[in-house]
Structures are given as structure tokens and as C-alpha cells.
Amino acid sequence: MPTLLNIQSSPRGLNSISRSLSHDFVTAWQTRHPDGKIVLRDLAEDTLPYVGVPWITGIFLPSDKHTPEMQRALAVSDELIAELLSADEILIGTPMYNFTVPANLKAWIDLIVRPRVTHSGPPERKGLVLGKTCKIIIASGGTYDQGLPAAASDYESGYLKRILAFIGITEVEVILAGNTAAVSFGSTTVEEHSAQFRPAVLASAR
Ligand SMILES: Cc1cc2nc3c(=O)[nH]c(=O)nc-3n(C[C@H](O)[C@H](O)[C@H](O)COP(=O)(O)O)c2cc1C
């Protein structure tokens, strides 16, 4: 029974294009895996803490040396990592904010990238999260497809691929759902806009 971890970060609920395309992905995935389990991690609903001194100090100490403050900080990180490790596939549905990931997704990344837990740290610097695939749907107001001048400003897809590879997830597909500004400014509808990306989304939900 495969498990899909569905990570969503847009705060825009039903108006969100990354959520709408992610919904199409999840529906197709469920059809292909009728016995599959889907775990939702909604980063817009559950506000994650930023990493601070108790977390940063705690990750380098054995658990019997953890203060109650460190235990609390690490418990959140432990929960997110356990969720990640128990998934076979990961879906990340996210907006582009200021050319990169939204702060809530960055907070999740900071909590799951952990030496000796999700990567070995030096000297090997090997990822420890193995055997997983990740599909990423990025909604953006502009268009950043390869070959366009704006592609150089997409600091999100390359960053996500790099950080996922760092922890061992190298099988990653990114769907860039650009030009959502056309929906915001009323020159097209969500339905028309989504129709351009749906074939790629459905194909990726294997
Ligand atoms: C704070 C903020 C920053 C944004 N920055 C960018 C950006 O750098 N590039 C871009 O193309 N669109 C940008 N946008 C537009 C969003 O990427 C676009 O509205 C997208 O559809 C949001 O995803 P969602 O529909 O899933 O909520 C920004 C929107 C907000 C609210």
C-alpha cells in the first residue's frame, strides 16, 4: 500500500492554482492506487516554528542531554521527518513567492533537513531519505519555462531539486504552472488556465 505525502503551502484555499492542480494530481493518484494512503501536510493551516537555538543546539546532542525546550523544538522536526520517511511518494504544491519558495515551505525544509537523520553530514554528506519520488507543482504569476529570459529568475524549482537531492530524493519532477496572473487579471479563467497543465499533472500521478 503506497503512501503519498501531500504537502501544500498556498494560503489561498479554493482560489489557489497550485492547490487546484494538486487536487487533480491526488485524484488521479488515488485512482491509480485505490489502496494507497494519502497524508496531507497543510503548511498554510499548521504554522510551523522557525528553527531557533534549542533546535540548533539539540540536533548535535544525544537525546539524554536534551533540555525540555530542546525536546519541544525537536519533537516538531521529528514528527515532520517521520511523516516524510513513511511516504513512498511526495507531492509539493506551492506558489512562487519573490522568485522562490514561500516562507512556510522554507520553515518545513529547515525542520526536515537534519544531520544524521535525513543526511549524513560530513565527511560523507550523503542523503539518507532514499527510495522516494517527488512531484512538485509550482504556480507563479509569471512564466519561467526553460528557454525564456525569465527562467534565470526561477530560484524555486532548482532550489527544491537541490535540497531534496541533498537529503537523498533525486527522482523529482517539476511542473511549472506559470502565467497565473492571467487568471488574477481576468483575461482567462482558472479552468482554462488549469487545462494547459492538467495533462502533465495527470501524467505525473503514476
Ligand atoms: C507575496 C507574493 C509574492 C509573489 N511573487 C511572485 C514572483 O516572484 N513571481 C511570480 O511569477 N509570481 C509571484 N507571485 C504570484 C503568485 O506566484 C501567483 O499568484 C500564484 O498563482 C500563487 O499560487 P496559488 O495560486 O497556488 O496561491 C507572488 C504572489 C505573492 C502573494
TrEMBL record:
Pfam families to which the protein is assigned, alphabetical: Flavodoxin_2
Required cofactor(s): FMN
Keyword Flavoprotein: yes
EC numbers for this chain: 1.6.5.-, 1.7.1.17
Keyword Oxidoreductase included in the entry's annotation: yes
Stretches assigned to the Flavodoxin-like fold domain: 4-197
Record: residues binding FMN: 10, 16-18, 96-99
EC supergroup of this enzyme: oxidoreductase
MF terms in GO: electron transfer activity; FMN binding; oxidoreductase activity, acting on NAD(P)H as acceptor; oxidoreductase activity, acting on NAD(P)H, quinone or similar compound as acceptor
Family annotation (InterPro entries): Flavodoxin_fold, Flavoprotein-like_sf, FMN-dep_NADH:Q_OxRdtase_AzoR1, NADH:quinone_OxRdtase_FMN_depd
Domain of life, source organism: Bacteria
Entry's cofactor comment: Binds 1 FMN per subunit.
UniProt keyword terms in alphabetical order: Flavoprotein, FMN, NAD, Oxidoreductase
Signal peptide location: none
Reactions that this protein is recorded to catalyse: 2 a quinone + NADH + H(+) = 2 a 1,4-benzosemiquinone + NAD(+); N,N-dimethyl-1,4-phenylenediamine + anthranilate + 2 NAD(+) = 2-(4-dimethylaminophenyl)diazenylbenzoate + 2 NADH + 2 H(+)
Function recorded in the entry: Quinone reductase that provides resistance to thiol-specific stress caused by electrophilic quinones. Also exhibits azoreductase activity. Catalyzes the reductive cleavage of the azo bond in aromatic azo compounds to the corresponding amines.
HAMAP family: Azoreductase_type1
Quaternary data: Homodimer.
Family: Belongs to the azoreductase type 1 family.
Protein name: FMN dependent NADH:quinone oxidoreductase
Organism: Tunturiibacter lichenicola
